[in-house]
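Pipeline run #58 for the internal structure catalog. This entry was flagged by the ingest filter as a single-chain record with no existing model, so it goes straight to prediction. Upstream metadata was stripped on purpose; only the residue string is passed forward. Reviewer on rotation: M.T. Logging verbosity set to normal.
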Amino acid sequence: MFDLRMVRTPLFRIAPLVLGLAVVASGLADRDGARPVGYAERVRVGALGPLRFDDRLVIEIEGITSPYLRGRTLSRYHDGAWWPKEGALLPVAAQGEATHRARLADGAAFLPLGAQVVASPAGAARRRADGTHVLAPEATWVGFRLEAEDAAPDPDDLEVPPAMREALVKRARALAGRGTPREQAERLRRALATSMDYRLDFEPRPGVDPVLDFLERGEGGHCELFASAYVLLARSLGIPARLVSGYYASERVPEAGILRARRSDAHAWAEVYVDGRYRTADPTPPQGSKTTSMRFRFPSTSLPTPDTPRSSSASAISSS
């Protein structure tokens, strides 16, 4: 039986590496006007303003390799903002053994794509249609396993605001070219990741949709802009896609196989439906150490990240 008690292992401290991640929570600004970096279930795309970083632990997970930890998927875009699709919460039937475990800091389950919760100490876990989970607030750990899910795409993940469609289709066709949906999706991801810089000082022009403004100006922006542009461009080509708000686990304890995410590791990326299922796609580009002062830790021998150069010939869209 899998032991669900977390291994207490000292943190492997790793050298700082700038990483292009930021989702601003809806918390109140401090006296200097800075807002906290953290997870948000709704994303308003645009200017970030001053940010305050928070290194409090969110989750510690053992035995996984993907650092992308999902909170909510966001399918509905209107007037510069993303909303999740609300639906029934389904009870999780605890079947089979857990192959992975997570220690939770505040009862929230940020888990990788394909996670199936099979054990939780504080009441039954519930599951959304997109595969994200809701736990009791007092939950301190969760056991899960990873399973590839073959499912039909959500029709909402093809919606594009009518006023934006013409401009998006023209740009998407130029960037993606011809090919299979997977080939087009990867060309889009690579084009965004290599044609603009990561920066925090994006200021949208008044009266212009921030995603179109971001694409038209080509000056770069933060992860919410890159992910939003990717999702809408993919949809304009008939490829289902959705925004994901969550965390990128930027700490690891190699000897114990543990990944950790802190509040300042909040991130936005995409999931694109190709080859029969949703797969992770991150269009946030690499950037130099002078681009931003955001503080993240990742070792030089790291897992693939948005800042690890990707092969021009191999697809960076996940195969799981």
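catalog note: The radius of gyration is 19 Å.
catalog note: Helices lie at 162-176, 181-195, 210-217, 223-236.
status: ready for reviewer M.T.
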